[in-house]
Each structure stands twice: as structure tokens, then as C-alpha cells.
């Protein structure tokens, strides 16, 4: 009898472990940071006609995803630096938010300005889900004017030949160190 109970308990623990492993970050199956520009010198103007830094999120799934409660930050110790209101990403959608330091949201026009800018020399940008779990992380380092980096479908930080705000990314390159 004890062996049977032990076998059942072991099976439950193994099954629970499988369920829990589904919570890990996997950019292919959830919203992720697909592109970041930390020195925008004329690539994409915001609603005020200015050229702030920007972050592009991508929903690679075939389902709508609500960003409500999701967070973006440039400081891993401050996950709640910016929390998204009720904005939904359509399947396959690319969504650009401005890292302008303005901290404003226009839900009708779907325009988001974050309360921080991005340092093009060295900065980390994090995306968290509504439970505070990290979904995506991009390490920005020595990113020149009008250059972008982001996360590819494997979850790796990559650099892009051309910026593509609001659209699929261009081919990648390896920066010279």
C-alpha cells in the first residue's frame, strides 16, 4: 500500500513539475521585446513630432494578448516602473512604445510614453507579465544612432541591419567589439 501511495505521489510531483515548467520565459510562445532603439535621430517620430527612444513588443501567438498589468522597466529591481493599462495586442502584432520619460498614455490612439529613456551605452530593458515574471530581456550596449537590437525567436539578443518599428525585423548582424 505504501509503495502504491509513493508511486501516486511521485506521479503527481512529476506532472506538477511539467506544469510549472510551462511558466518559464519562452519568447516564441508569448509577448516579447522584439526591437529597441536607444538613440533615435530621425527614424520614428512620436505624436509630438519628437524622436524619443522606443521599444517594440511582438505578439507571436495566434491569440489576442492583454498587456494590462504587464510591466516594462530599465531597472530589474523596479519591476513596476511602468505598468500597462488595458491594451490588447492582436495575433502577430508589433506594438511600439516610446521611452521618452513623459509617462503618458492615450488609450484611444494607443500611444504609450514610458517614464524612462534608454541609455545607448549600456542599459537593460525588461518585460514582465502581470504576475511579475520576466518574459523578455534585452541588453542594450554601445548602440549607435538609429541602430536597433532586440530578441530573436530563440530568445537571444541580436542587432538589426535596419530599424523596422511596428513591423517584422530585418536581417541581423554581429557588432564589432
Q: Tell me roughly what share of residues is in helical segments.
A: 10-25%
What is the N-to-C succession of helices and strands? HEEEEEEEEEEEEEE
Overall radius of gyration: 19 Å
Relative strand content: 25-35%
Separation of the first and last Cα atoms: 64 Å
Poorly predicted runs? 1-28
Please give the largest β-sheet: 6 strands, antiparallel
| Class from helix and strand fractions | mainly beta
Q: How would you describe the shape? A: globular
Strand adjacency order, main sheet: 7-2-1-12-13-14
Overall pLDDT level: 84
Helix count, DSSP H or I runs of 4 or more residues: 1
Annotation, overall tally of beta strands: 14
Explain what the structure shows:
Helices cover 11% and strands 33% of the residues. The strands form four sheets. It has a six-stranded antiparallel β-sheet, with no helix packed on it. A four-stranded antiparallel β-sheet has the order 5-4-10-11, with no helix packed on it. The N terminus is likely disordered. It is built from one helix and 14 strands. It is mainly beta and 177 residues long. A hairpin with a 5-residue loop joins strand 12 and strand 13.
Short description:
This protein is mainly beta and 177 residues long. The protein has one helix at residues 2-21, and strands spanning 32-37, 53-58, 65-66, 71-73, 82-83, 88-89, 94-99, 104-106, 111-113, 122-128, 134-141, 148-151, 157-160, 172-173.
Amino acid at each position: 500500500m505504501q509503495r502504491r501511495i509513493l508511486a501516486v505521489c511521485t506521479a503527481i510531483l512529476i506532472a506538477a513539475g511539467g506544469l510549472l515548467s510551462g511558466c518559464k520565459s519562452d519568447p516564441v510562445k508569448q509577448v516579447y521585446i522584439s526591437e529597441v532603439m536607444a538613440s533615435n535621430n530621425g527614424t520614428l517620430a512620436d505624436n509630438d513630432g519628437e524622436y524619443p527612444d522606443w521599444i517594440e513588443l511582438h505578439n507571436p501567438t495566434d491569440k489576442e494578448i492583454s498587456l494590462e498589468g504587464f510591466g516594462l522597466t530599465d531597472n530589474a529591481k523596479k519591476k513596476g516602473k511602468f505598468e500597462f493599462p488595458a491594451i490588447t495586442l492582436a495575433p502577430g502584432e508589433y506594438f511600439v512604445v516610446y521611452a521618452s520619460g513623459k509617462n503618458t498614455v492615450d488609450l484611444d490612439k494607443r500611444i504609450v510614453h514610458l517614464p524612462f529613456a534608454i541609455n545607448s551605452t549600456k542599459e537593460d530593458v525588461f518585460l514582465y507579465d502581470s504576475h511579475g515574471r520576466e518574459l523578455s530581456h534585452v541588453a542594450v550596449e554601445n548602440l549607435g544612432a538609429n541602430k536597433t537590437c532586440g530578441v530573436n525567436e530563440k530568445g537571444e539578443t541580436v542587432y538589426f541591419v535596419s530599424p523596422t518599428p511596428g513591423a517584422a525585423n530585418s536581417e541581423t548582424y554581429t557588432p564589432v567589439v
